[in-house]
Amino acid sequence: MTVIHQNDLIDSITDALQFIACYHPKDFIDSLYQAYQKEENPVARDALAQILINSRLAAIGKRPMCQDTGMVTVFVEIGMGVHFDSQMTLDEMINEGVRRAYTSSADILRKSVVSDPDGARKNTGDNTPAVIHHHMVSGDKLRIRIAAKGGGSEAKARLAMLNPSDNIVDWVLEQLPKMGAGWCPPGIIGIGIGGNPEKAMEMAKSLAMESIDIHSLKARGAKNRDEELRLELYEKINQLGIGAQGLGGLSTVLDVKVGSYPTHAANKPVGLVPNCAATRHIEFTLEGNGPADMPEINLSDWPEITRLSDDKAKRVNLDTVTESEIAEWQPGDTLLLSGKLLTGRDAAHKRLIDLLDQGKPLPVDFKDRFIYYVGPVDPMAGEVMGPAGPTTATRMDKFTPRLLTETGLRGMIGKAERGAETIKAIRDNKAIYLIAVGGAAYLISKAIKVAKILAFEDLGMEAIYEFEVKDMPVTVAVDTKGNNIHKTGPETWHKHILEAHCASCHG
């Protein structure tokens, strides 16, 4: 019998969450670097460069690679011979580890979990509770797999109850374009087939936490149906041309994981879960001899690369930029922003619209200003602001037309695509939509030189700030005429990939 002591489990959970917030798995870094080396689209290649540079900086600085430090998912395999020396239940121990990780002064992590999800949505203050899956297994060890999953990629999860004769590949290829860029591709896709709805989704979530090995699978060949699906989906998803950050390119997924489970004869449940550019997961085993040791970090595992686009970028002074200057920007242009920048996201936007509805004055003048959709991590000693990457702009679509029309807002910065009505409002108001790279939060924070709260301080990370930035890298996504890179980029690269594929087949 193995005795697992309470503090050993709690400390292991805490250490693991602090670790994965700052360090990518080596297999992910290696695969992302391969994608960077082969990428032909300059805009997508620059996005990949930013993610790689950000990852190395986060590892050096021991700071979160993404501002969304995730909601915790834990898979626990409990050996039948394990005994717990604890005054707490297993779930209580795990949640205590989560609480300590997200409230530690050693490395501040953003707390994103809210209770009463359809009501007050009050932040729990410590990122608890985790979502915990328990499995009893043979043996006398406790195996823990833990992930911190960001909201942007979770929002793109999919579940379908297909008919037995339906084609899974067709369904997946239909979903990927609909998922857009909010999950910050390229990443890993987990696909669970069979069981019942919750089993399919649990499998998909678990599979998305596995190591990248698609290239070794291609080398040896498929041995079963699941592996056949992996290879087919990997090739066909990348042929869609969605690319890094949805900008169009050769790499949309780094791996596809497929698992299956027996199901009812009348059903074919399929769960799809993407893992984003901030892939954060780790596995450890407790055997009764103390807390788990975290992997040793070797900075040589990270490639040292530099962005080549800065030399071609247009430098923009946000404090003096004119309407005519903005009108010259084209989708795909790289900009380096300097000057004063407002921030705000879901909760702040809701309050602004409520004030407009009530005919009350807004706390901030948005006339000719730019707003950055961000919920940053609190700063630590020596920092102006913690990691501050973009959140998914699509969630602000319901508010954007009115803000553009009624406040004179000039520009927006976020990640992922905008909806048709929002693009029309951007065009009609001669506004602009820019994207920052999801997965480059720590790199972006280095551009923030001054930060102060202007309104809604009670919203915490969702308050309206004013940042003063210096050379903050962004890409033009929707120009003043309504041209949209998230539409034209993937279309262009899908065509390019298919033409190249056909040429190689005929060659």
From TrEMBL:
EC number of the protein: 4.2.1.2
Q: Note the Gene3D superfamilies from the entry.
A: Fe-S hydro-lyase, tartrate dehydratase beta-type, catalytic domain
Tell me a Gene Ontology molecular-function term this record carries. metal ion binding
SUPFAM superfamilies in UniProt: FumA C-terminal domain-like (SSF117457)
Please write the reaction equations for the catalytic activity of this protein. (S)-malate = fumarate + H2O
Required cofactor(s) = [4Fe-4S] cluster
InterPro entries found in the cross-reference section: Fe-S_hydro-lyase_TtdA-typ_cat, Fe-S_hydro-lyase_TtdB-typ_cat, Fe-S_hydroAse_TtdB_cat_sf, Fe_dep_fumarate_hydratase
Q: Which UniProt keywords apply?
A: 4Fe-4S, Iron, Iron-sulfur, Lyase, Metal-binding
Where would I find the Fe-S hydro-lyase tartrate dehydratase beta-type catalytic domain in this sequence? Answer: 288-488
Name the domain of life: Bacteria
Q: Where is the Fe-S hydro-lyase tartrate dehydratase alpha-type catalytic domain?
A: 11-284
Q: Could you confirm whether the keyword Cell cycle appears in this record?
A: no
Pfam families in alphabetical order: Fumerase, Fumerase_C
A Gene Ontology biological process term: generation of precursor metabolites and energy
What does the record give as the function of this protein?
A: Catalyzes the reversible hydration of fumarate to (S)-malate.
Could you say which protein family the record assigns here? Belongs to the class-I fumarase family.
Subunit and partners:
Homodimer.
Task: State the protein's name.
Answer: Fumarate hydratase class I
Q: What is the lineage of its organism?
A: Bacteria, Pseudomonadati, Pseudomonadota, Alphaproteobacteria, Sphingomonadales
